[in-house]
Structure to design on (284 residues):
């Protein structure tokens, strides 16, 4: 059996318990649950800061930890099953369950309910927080977290919030966000991260990487039938159809999330990645 190391935790010395009987390993472990306690945590294929990230996990997301060693944790994300190594400092106990989710592209975290104070952090869309109180200062309402920090109240919604159903609208909020290989946040994002996070905010699960999305997200369609919300795939790249003539995508050409004429994009990308490899319609 050929398993994908991105979605299955296995090494010769250690593997997740559910793979017992499917792979050979010296030890099998069930894993313990931990929670991301930093705004954004990079997940790497190896415990080495000089190696680029595969993806990112956001504040409040849970993981299963299979190993803690030399300041690193080998984990599997609960949200999409992605496996990799996180800096141990990025994880903490699960504690009480989150109550709210951040809904704009990004928001500022203040040391107290006061926008004139210097902010102490930046949180991405999709971050999960636990609200312990609310406060109003000069007509501005805030939610207060357990540690006393505060976020502008309109920037969060109760956990489970479904953002209107049109994931293309959500994706458009990321316009001009810097392109980041492996990025999955409002601070920097890649093409498949944009698709995944935008869909997740409208209640639709999506695989993380382009090849996973091209194989299992929605149904294949013909190019002539493309409409808003459909996906266009190249080798290693994906774009969202905003309308029959326009795509939205995080790309290394502008190094941002940008709009581009679809026909022009096909011509521009073709010299390096050839023609699109497929088109899919998500279950909207």
């Amino acid at each position: 059996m050929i398993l994908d190391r991105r979605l299955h935790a296995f090494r010769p010395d250690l593997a997740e318990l559910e793979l017992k009987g499917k792979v050979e390993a010296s030890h099998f472990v069930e894993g313990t649950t931990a929670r991301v306690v930093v705004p954004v945590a990079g997940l790497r294929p190896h415990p080495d800061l000089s190696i680029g990230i595969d993806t990112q996990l956001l504040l409040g997301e849970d993981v299963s930890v299979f190993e803690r060693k030399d300041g690193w944790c080998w984990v599997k994300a609960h949200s999409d099953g992605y496996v990799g190594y996180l800096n141990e400092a990025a994880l903490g106990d699960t504690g009480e369950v989150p109550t709210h989710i951040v809904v704009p592209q990004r928001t500022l975290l203040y040391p107290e309910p006061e926008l004139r104070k210097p902010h102490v952090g930046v949180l991405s869309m999709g971050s999960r927080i636990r609200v312990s109180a609310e406060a109003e200062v000069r007509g501005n309402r805030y939610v207060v977290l357990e540690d006393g920090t505060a976020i502008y109240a309109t920037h969060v919604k109760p956990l489970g919030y479904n953002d209107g159903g049109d994931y293309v609208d959500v994706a458009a909020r990321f316009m001009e966000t810097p392109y980041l290989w492996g990025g999955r946040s409002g601070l920097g994002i890649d093409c498949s991260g944009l698709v995944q996070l935008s869909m997740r905010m409208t209640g639709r699960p999506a695989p993380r990487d382009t090849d996973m999305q091209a194989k299992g997200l929605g149904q294949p369609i013909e190019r002539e039938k493309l409409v808003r919300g459909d996906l266009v795939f190249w080798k290693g790249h994906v774009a969202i159809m905003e309308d029959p003539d326009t795509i939205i995508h995080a790309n290394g050409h502008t190094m941002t999330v940008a709009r581009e004429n679809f026909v022009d994009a096909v011509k521009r990308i073709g010299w390096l990645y050839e023609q699109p490899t497929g088109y899919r319609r998500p279950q909207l």
Remarks:
- Helices lie at 167-172, 191-200, 210-216, 262-273.
- The chain has a mean pLDDT of 96.
